[in-house]
Design goal:
449 residues, alpha/beta, Rossmann fold, Dihydrodipicolinate Reductase, domain 2, ten-stranded mixed β-sheet, 18 strands, 29% helix, globular
């Protein structure tokens, strides 16, 4: 069998099992994609007492070897993920590859009877994401998305406060990633180069278009062929909390402005971007990303490793700010006037307003950080045994990813797009609908795409 042939043989299909993992069995886990995020996943999966890491896979051999050094036991090393899917002793896979590989690996893992923990964004395009949901349901697989903030206690507490009405009716939410780069050189414009030893470049590309090796391309989030910039990198995490807290998941319209305005390098994706979504219930949601200035909408100067980032929900009774470090509820202040005071004109001219006082419409609250990633992994492992849906189920991850993907489509088309969430297509743009899927490079195929 050609190593790039679609793995869908009767033998593999027959190996698919839907039974729950017995409580006293070891759960065989394989990591596919051993870069930085993959190794973070590996660290927390190893902490689960019933988990045994049985295989590691990466198209760049040094990545797999680095991950192997983290293991408390031994695991087999591969460069082709399909060899892992053939193994009957692997119950679940962690997919931490570049974004463009997530759908095919996850779907084939479901077909091979494996449960899946897949990093966000779940897909390169909207149609792939829907096919992932369908595969998980059709094969009765547990598929957890790496939207680990849902497992953080302070995120859960803050979301509960919003749902209880503590900040009132929310009509505006904003998320942002604002950073500062002292230089606009970025990745530069490197020439194509020989493929490094230990890297299978053709397999790294997979279903993406065939191009010569270039070192800049391994910064995959900056190129449309593999990802979608900060909008699909960070905003998926942020918009997911907006969806969760406000109980929405499908916008009505989207528009976006920006582009590659700061960096003078070879990237495709925007370094300066704003996206506006309109949701049912008169809700406006905004996302912005900057690299030339780190000051945030919440007034933070951005003197943190991530710069300024976070989520603000602005309601009729108060505002919630939340990020991974904690949250704060700031009451909306309501103005009152003493019975005997200056007239409104004089008070206005005084700027301070003599005889006026302000009271809060809700109670202030503040919380610090909580563990997020490890309990998210724990939730996945528990669901492998219970067969319940995890807190970051694939359907949830699909909606949060798709919302960001259509933001980039709005940017690239320059149109205000009307979104039909039920059909997952645009109502007003044939050009935009063409960008909801893409053709795979042969011989890679994905049924339904």
């Amino acid at each position: 069998m050609n190593r790039r042939t679609f793995l869908a043989t009767p033998a593999v299909a027959a190996a698919a099992a839907t039974e729950a993992v017995a409580a006293n069995d070891k759960i065989g886990v394989a990591l596919i994609g051993c870069g930085g995020m993959g190794r973070s996943d590996l660290a927390d999966f190893q902490k689960q007492p019933e988990v045994e890491i049985r295989a590691l896979c990466d198209v760049y051999r040094p990545n797999a070897e680095t991950a192997a050094k983290m293991l408390t036991g031994k695991a087999d090393l591969y460069n082709d993920y399909r060899r892992i899917l053939e193994r009957k002793d692997v119950d679940a896979v962690v997919v931490a590859t570049p974004d463009h590989w997530h759908p095919l690996i996850a779907i084939q893992a479901c077909e091979a009877g494996k449960d899946v923990y897949v990093e966000k964004p779940i897909s390169h395009n909207v149609r792939e994401g829907r096919l992932m949901v369908e595969a998980a349901r059709r094969h009765k697989r547990v598929m957890q998305v790496g939207i680990q903030q849902r497992s953080g206690a302070h995120f859960q507490r803050a979301v509960a406060a919003v749902k209880e009405g503590r900040i009132g009716k929310v009509h505006f939410a904003q998320c942002w990633n604002h950073g500062f780069s002292a230089s606009n050189k970025g990745m530069g414009h490197p020439e194509d180069a020989p493929v490094p030893e230990g890297l299978d470049w053709d397999l790294w590309l997979g279903p993406a278009p065939k191009i010569p090796y270039n070192p800049a391309r391994r910064n995959f989030r900056a190129f449309w062929d593999y990802a979608g910039g900060e909008l699909t990198n960070w905003c998926v995490h942020l918009i997911d909390i907006v969806h969760w807290a406000l109980e929405v998941d499908t916008p009505l319209t989207v528009t976006s402005s920006g582009g590659k305005w700061f960096y003078d390098d070879c990237r495709d994706c925007a370094d300066t971007q704003e996206v506006i979504w309109e949701y049912p219930g008169n809700l406006l949601v905004r996302y912005s990303t900057l690299v030339h200035n780190s000051f945030g909408p919440n007034g933070h100067p951005g003197n943190k490793s991530f710069g300024s980032y976070g989520i603000m929900l602005q309601g009729t009774k108060g505002t919630l700010f939340i990020d991974r470090a904690g949250y704060e509820i700031i009451p909306q202040m309501e103005m009152h006037s003493e019975k005997v005071t200056q007239g409104s004109r004089e008070a206005y001219d005084d700027l301070n307003g003599l005889g006026q006082f302000f009271t809060g419409l809700t109670m202030a609250e503040r919380a610090t950080t909580s563990f997020q990633h490890q309990p998210h992994v724990r939730n996945f492992v528990d669901c492998l045994k219970s067969r319940e849906k995890p807190v970051g189920d694939i359907e949830i991850g699909h909606h949060s990813t798709a919302t960001c993907l259509i933001g980039n489509i709005a940017l690239r088309t320059g149109e205000k797009l009307q979104w039909d969430g039920a059909k997952e297509q645009f109502k007003n743009s044939a050009k935009a609908n063409e960008m909801l899927r893409r053709e795979y490079r042969k011989p890679w195929t994905l049924a339904g795409l």
